[in-house]
Write a structure and sequence with these properties.
Elements lengths: L4 E5 L4 H12 L5 E5 L4 H11 L6 E4 L2 E4 L1 H9 L3 H6 L1
Parallel strand pairs: 1-2
Antiparallel strand pairs: 1-3, 3-4
């Protein structure tokens, strides 16, 4: 898989874990995690970039996918794997 995956996350976040498992099941070996609970300035940056305050916020390459529900919907629509390939 080609596209870089970045996920804004916290230490305790069931939806982050579900998103990570879904991505791994699609062959994503590495997810860059940005911990907004450890770095409050990262949460501010995430909210500015995405307009959302909840985690996870997932980027595939430069594309803001959204949260777990958005990721899951992309997968059901058959659009996740092409995005991951870049």
């Amino acid at each position: 898989m080609g596209a870089k995956v970045t996920m804004y996350t916290t230490g305790v976040c069931p939806y982050c874990n579900m998103a990570e498992r879904l991505l791994q099941s699609k062959g994503v070996a590495e997810i860059e995690k940005i911990r907004v609970d450890l770095e409050p300035e990262q949460r501010a940056e995430m909210m500015e970039k995405t307009g959302r305050r909840t985690v996870p916020q997932i980027y595939i390459g430069e594309t803001h996918v959204g949260g777990f529900d958005d990721l899951s919907a992309l997968d059901r629509a058959g659009e996740l794997e092409p995005l991951l390939r870049g």
